[in-house]
Structure formats: structure tokens, C-alpha cells
Amino acid sequence: MRRRLIVVFLVPLVLVLTVLGGGYAWSTARGVQQEFYAEQLGDLGYFVTTARQALLTGSSDMFEGEVRRYRELYGTRVMVVDRTGHAWAPRSADPMLDRPEVDAQIRLALSGRRGELPQNALPWQFSDLSLVEPVFDGGDVIGAVVMSASVDVPRAEIGRQWFLIAAVAAVVIAAGLLIVFRLAGWVLRPVRRLDRAMEAIERGDMDARIRDETGPPELHRMILMFNRMADEIERVVARQQEFALNASHELRNPLNALLLRVEVLAADVGAAGAADVEKIREEGERMTRILDTLLGFARGSVSESDFEDVDLTALVARRSRAWQDVAARKAIVFTVDGGGPILSHVDEAVVESALDAVIDNAVKFSPHGGRVELSVRPSDERTRIVVRDHGPGMEAEELEQAADRFWRSTRNQNIPGSGLGLAIAMDLLRSVGGRLAVQSPQGGGLSVIFDLPGANPR
């Protein structure tokens, strides 16, 4: 987010500086060039006057002396050509006259016309400036003055001006970066505190609050609302934990009393009812484990100490036997396909509870005399439990909502239920590192798949 803020502030600043600085740099270059041209034209006008006198008198000594001193001072070459275009003063050959552009300007000047000034150009496009001015006597052209000046000085001046402009732009950008960094830090500081507080609450630290109210005033209300929300969440969680503890106390006592009565009943019924009593005892003990697990959920999570390598094949077979009496009311048959022991490192009570929720749905939605198929299979380094019924199944668009809380298909509204079975099973499996998937197999019905961790490596 800091990066985006910097880009948002910095890109317009750079664009503005580029436009303004580029315009000012171009204007500066034109000013330096025009000043240079004006100076050369002034000097050229002086030499035209001197050259006229020299040509009329036929003596070039004074003109040559002035030209020599001028070249020593400024490095600029000046000469006069006669009306035939040949060098008149100084009379020595000058390579300047061999340049095509200079020759063209001399012919133009001897015809009585003045050449145009060079167009403005960038410094690296400069070449030596050549100017040719005709010398008139009355209305006749008696010669021309040729001047060739070096552009090193104006080029260096333009470079210096551009360097200053670039330096100023760099300083402004650096100052802008500093201001943007400080501004971004000031704006984002409360947002980062808010993010850290939310992470702390997610980890279970319900005391996390934002104490410092620095930053923009617009964020103060958000911080206030967050603190209020955190207070409300802490209050609700505390009430849930209190309810779980109270429920533990209220449910455990009657359950213990029930188990004691079962033990007394076992002594009275003798061998004839021993099997039924043993089933009741097993279910009572399983209810105790489930109660402990649910209390662990209410406190935050399932303890890792409750995880162990569980034989899923034996667990599925045991739960199918426990549901036989309920299934028999609709003449439903269970089939278990598991082969040998298949281990998974999970909390046994959690998997039992999730499996019971799914089997309950399978029995509920199976037709009279139907079949519920349970299978256990290894899958890569994980294990799978599949519970398949042959009931009405679901449409493809309904499968995505099947595990939502309180969701029920419109076709099954007449069947008793709350729509919580698959949602509870999914939450239970997630707590032990598992996943739940719902599919529509070929032949109708519904398949619920438990994807569970494999055995704990030794």
C-alpha cells in the first residue's frame, strides 16, 4: 500500500517537473543561442564597415590587423572575398571557403542578398556558425565578409543551464519522496496497527486493541469502531465459553448418573441383556468423549495431545453397527468395504462425530429398503472415508451449497432436519486437518468424502 501511495504522488510530480523543466530548458537554449547570434551579427556589422573602407582604398593592412586580434581574442575567423568570390584579405587560402554551405552563402551574398540566420537547435546539433554579409558601395556589391565562429561557448552555457535545471528537479523529486514517505507513514501507521490487532484477535488474543490514535482524523472513527467491535467479540466469546463450561457441568452429571444406572442394570438383567447393556455403556462413554471434544472446540481448538493413529476401518465398522438399529426401522442395509487396517493421525472422537452426522443424513434420505455404502481407502499420503447413499441426491448447482449451515434442498423440505449435519461435519474435519467433499455419483444418490491425514510417521 505504501508503494501505491508513493506511485500515486510521485508519478504526477515527475510528469509536472518533466513538462515544466523541459519547457524551461528549451527556452534557455533558445535564449543562449539568440544572444550568441546577436553578438556575432553585431561584430559582423562592424567588420562589414571596415571591409568597405579597405576595399575602396585597396589597402587591407588595417582590416587584417583587426581580424588577427579578433581571432586571438575570440577564436573566430573573419575574411573578405572580392566580387569574384576569391579571398581578398587575408589573402592566404582558408579551408572555410571550401565548405559547401559557406560557398552557397558567399554566392548568395555576392548576388546582393543576405542569408537567413540559423534555426534554433539543440546543443548537440550545433556546428560552427558561418555568417556571410555582402559589402555594398552605393547599390553595387563590391565583396562580402565571411565569419566562422565556434559554438563551444554557447554549447557549454546551455549544458550548464540544463545541468542546473536537472539538479533542481532532482532536489525537488528527493524532497517529494521524503514528504511522500513521511505522509505515507503517517497515513498507514494506524492501518498497520489495525492489521496487527486483527491478526492478534485471529490468533485468539482477545485483548488486542489499538491505543494510539495518531494518523488522519478520518481513521480515528475506524479505530474507535474496531475497538468497540473487539470488545463485543470478546464479550460474545466469553459468554460462549461460560455456556460451554455450564453445559459441561449440567450434561456430565446426568451422563455419569446414567452410566451408574447402566452398571446397576447390568447386574439385574444377567447374561440375557448383557450385550444390550454393553452397547449402552459404549455409547455413554462415546458421548463423554464427544462432550470433551465439543468443549475443546468451545475453548478454541482441539488439543494436539488428543491426536493418535486411529484405525479408520475399525472405526467405520463400529459406527455402522451402532446405527444398525436406527437403519433397521427403514430396512436399510449397511455395507462396509475397508480391507485391512488403514490408519489416520486424528482425534477419534472428532471423526466419529463427523461420521455420525453424515450417516444420519444418509439414513434419513435413503428410501425404504435402501443401502448405505461405507468404504475406507488410502489416497496418496492421506486416507479417505466415503459414505454413499442411494437417495434422491442433489443437482450440480446444489452441491456447492450442501455444506452451508441451515441450507436444505427445496425437494426435501418435508423431511425433518435442520440443515446442519454436513456443516458440522465439515467444521469437525477441518479441526483435525481434514476436508469434506460432496459428489453426485453415477447411478444416483449422494457421496460424502472425508479426506483425512495419513498415519503419523515414526
UniProtKB/TrEMBL annotation:
Taken from the record, one Pfam family name reads HisKA
Q: Which reaction does it catalyse?
A: ATP + protein L-histidine = ADP + protein N-phospho-L-histidine
Give start and end of each HAMP domain.
185-238
Q: What's the Enzyme Commission number for this chain?
A: 2.7.13.3
The portions of this protein that span the membrane are 162-188
Would the keyword Phosphoprotein be found if you checked this record's keyword annotation?
Answer: yes
Top-rank taxon: Bacteria
* Annotated ranges, domain Histidine kinase: 246-456
Give the enzyme's main class according to its UniProt record, as a single word: transferase
Q: Which GO MF terms are attached to this record?
A: kinase activity
What PANTHER family does the record point to? SENSOR HISTIDINE KINASE TRCS, SENSOR HISTIDINE KINASE YKOH
Q: What is this protein called?
A: histidine kinase
Species: Microbacterium soli
Taxonomy of the source species: Bacteria, Bacillati, Actinomycetota, Actinomycetes, Micrococcales
